[in-house]
TrEMBL record:
This is Aspartyl-phosphate phosphatase Spo0E family protein. Pfam families: SpoOE-like. Gene3D superfamilies: Helix-loop-helix DNA-binding domain. InterPro entries: HLH_DNA-bd_sf, Spo0E-like, Spo0E-like_sf. The lineage of its organism: Bacteria, Bacillati, Bacillota, Bacilli, Bacillales. SUPFAM superfamilies: BAS1536-like.
Length: 50
C-alpha cells in the first residue's frame, strides 16, 4: 500500500509541475497524468474496507 501511496504522490507532484510549466490545465500531458492519478486513487479506494 505504501508503494501505491508513493506513486500517487509522485504523480500529483508531476501533474502540478507540468500544469505550471504548460500554464494550462487542459494540456494533453496534464490530462494524461491526471487520468493516471485517478486510476491509482481508484485502486487505493477499492482496497480500503467499506
Amino acid at each position: 500500500m505504501e508503494a501505491l501511496e508513493n506513486e500517487i504522490e509522485q504523480l500529483r507532484i508531476m501533474m502540478i509541475a507540468v500544469a505550471e510549466q504548460k500554464g494550462n490545465l487542459c494540456d494533453p500531458e496534464v490530462v494524461h497524468i491526471s487520468q493516471q492519478l485517478d486510476s491509482w486513487i481508484f485502486v487505493v479506494q477499492q482496497s480500503m474496507p467499506h
